[in-house]
Amino acid sequence: DLIVMDWKMPVMSGIDALEKLKANVATKDILVMIVTGIATMQENLEEAYNKGAIDFIRKPFEKIEFVARVKSLLDLVRYHKIALERKNKELTASTLQLTKLSEMCQKIIVKLQVFQESNPSASAMIEEISGNINIQLKNEIWKRFEEYFTELHPDFYKNLTKKHANISPAEYKLCALLRI
Predict the structure, then answer these.
(1) How is residue 16 annotated by DSSP?
(2) What whole-number distance in Å separates Cα of residue 142 and Cα of residue 110?
(3) pLDDT per residue over 118-132, tens digit each?
């Protein structure tokens, strides 16, 4: 949940380690607090912040200050996890709604086609209604799903496009559903 790391370490600096952590998909979201007794100038602290540190504390520090900062960061992590869980539930519910609505629309279209066969004079109107249902389903509902999805997985589409430049819109959607 939280990494507390010194600026000066034997194998690599805390800033170098921070850059590696933030570049790795598996560790990029872990909060990092930098502890420093050496690099205490404003520019150093700005560098740590710009590289992805969430907080920093100068040595020597009071134990109570350190404990309070760690506790508040861990509280932030817990709050974030709860919010993320809630968003995941919303996304799952939205996906289920999308599926049910899609099934319902398909049933309506089938019934309209049956009606069209028995009433050829209404053919143009029925085709227009069926087309509108499909357009609404494919565009508006999917747009809402993507809004929820992008909130939870902001880099998903960018990373997908980076790895697979020629991906089709249908494959895009399938990948998002598989990600869930």
Answers:
(1) H
(2) 21
(3) 877 777 777 777 777
**Segments in 24-155 forming alpha helices (H):** 42-51, 63-118, 123-136, 142-152
| Confidence (pTM) | 0.59
Strand partners, 57: 35
| Rounded-to-integer distance, Cα 92 and Cα 95, Å | 5
Q: Record the tokens describing residue 76, joined without a space.
A: 């932030």
Q: In Å, what is the CA distance from 88 to each residue of 23, 57, 82, 175, 176?
A: 24, 34, 10, 16, 13
The 3-class SS string of 17-35 reads HHHHHHHCCCCCCCEEEEE
Q: What is the amino acid identity at position 17?
A: A
- Residues in Cβ contact with 94 at an 8 Å cutoff, skipping those fewer than 6 apart: 144, 145, 148
